[in-house]
Design brief:
By secondary structure, the protein is an alpha/beta fold.
Length: 403
């Protein structure tokens, strides 16, 4: 779908969407509990719906009404009842692979070609060491074997989702386990979000030191009624509007949240004052919107950017391509991206969303400032399906150009 924006000044109050990261974690914890859990604050993004589908494939039952999911958990996995359809959700895929290795250990997981092309060697290596069959043919992943407790050594610079996936499964094994994370540890906040979610459901995982996690075996998830907190990563798009002359107030965010993306408040302030050097290794999801604001302001030097290549798109390259249409120059290197504003102006070409929700929303923030057209906006359904409804609430003017 293609939208054309008029220059607009967004004004008003927006309630932050619920945290997709915590929604995944709360739903999985509820799905692994022995009994009925109630999870409030669930938005119907494609990623969250994929997690619900996969829980159902493991045997959980749920109802979803308004923003609340009531889920009857499985206690402990007896194995997959059906193929797990992960759609395009990296969190879903990486969280569920270890869970599929409980019970009878046989499962098939599917997802988009882009998703199954993301790095999975961490799990492949674990499976090889434990004589578990792990086959990824690019269309599906087939697993056959049972995960055993023990000592796991995981690189910390690929994705914290591997560590979180193990944290969900290891407490249900009979023996105790440790996870030794090889530094540098990126996205540490997401690991701590998983530990927090586990704790809500009575499961303990604790740090022995700054790189070692201890997980006691034979634990049990206990059903709970919980509320998903507001999402700083998606709230950042609305906060970015203020950097470009908007007047938007955001409510519904937990002040003491441990979400790594809460740093956007400080980072946007830095971008407004000059050309800062910013490390995004603990907040990679903020990458696209930070690059967008930098292009409209005085530029920036961003480090810790290597993981942007393995998201829904190659986000560094995608943003460089699209920001060039605004007159910015973006230099993308292995682990650094430099933004030079040069001659920022309304794009004369149609922007492309690269089938990436965060690329689309970041570019839309700029189009409110300049006007212009973007194609592929339906990608927002992955994380914030009501994004454009929220823009209308703020008085942003745009029209659908798709015939």
């Amino acid at each position: 779908m293609k939208l054309t924006f008029e220059k607009s000044t967004p004004r008003g109050t927006i309630c932050a969407p619920p945290s997709k990261s915590m929604a995944h974690r709360m739903l999985i914890s509820g799905g692994l509990s022995d009994g009925k859990s109630i999870v409030h604050g669930i938005a119907p993004s494609q990623d969250v719906l994929a997690t619900l589908d996969c829980l159902e494939s493991l045997g959980a039952k749920y109802t979803y009404q308004n923003d609340t999911v009531v889920i009857e958990g499985i206690g402990t996995s007896e194995g997959a009842k059906d193929t797990l359809k992960c759609r395009e959700s990296g969190s879903t895929l990486r969280f569920f692979i270890p869970l599929c290795l409980l019970g009878n250990g046989k499962a098939t997981l599917t997802g988009s070609e882009t998703l199954l092309g993301r790095p999975l060697d961490v799990y492949k290596n674990i499976c090889d060491k434990q004589n578990i069959k792990f086959i990824n043919d690019g269309k599906k992943i087939r697993l056959d074997g049972k995960l055993q407790s023990g000592d796991f050594k995981i690189p910390g610079n690929i994705s914290s989702q591997f560590i979180s996936g193990l944290l969900f499964a290891l407490p249900l094994l009979s023996g105790d386990s440790t996870i030794n994370i090889v530094p540098p540890i990126e996205s540490l906040s997401y690991i701590n979000l998983t530990i927090e979610a586990l704790g809500e459901f009575g499961v303990e995982a604790k740090w022995l030191d700054e790189r070692t996690l201890y997980i006691k075996g034979s634990q049990q998830y206990h059903p709970q009624e919980v509320w998903v907190e507001g999402d700083y990563s998606n709230a950042a798009f609305f906060a970015a509007m203020d950097c470009l002359g908007g007047d938007v107030k955001i409510t519904g965010l937990k002040e003491q949240s441990i979400q790594g993306d809460r740093v956007y408040t400080r980072l946007f302030e830095q971008l407004g004052k000059g050309t800062p050097a910013i490390n995004i290794s603990d907040c990679p999801d903020l990458g696209p919107v930070l690059l967008a604001v930098a292009a409209a302001k005085s530029g920036g030097v961003f480090t810790g950017t290597n993981r942007l290549r393995i998201k829904e798109s190659d986000r560094g390259a995608a943003m460089a391509e699209e920001l060039k249409k605004f007159g910015a120059s973006v230099k993308v290197e292995d682990n650094t991206i430099v933004v030079y504003p040069i001659d920022f102006h309304k794009p004369n070409e149609v922007l492309f969303g690269h089938n990436d929700h965060r690329i689309v929303m970041s570019l839309c923030v700029l189009l409110m400032y300049t006007g212009g057209t973007i194609d592929g906006v339906e990608a927002v359904n992955k994380s914030m399906p009501d994004f454009f409804e929220k823009l209308k609430q703020l008085g942003v003017n745009f029209k659908n150009e798709t015939v």
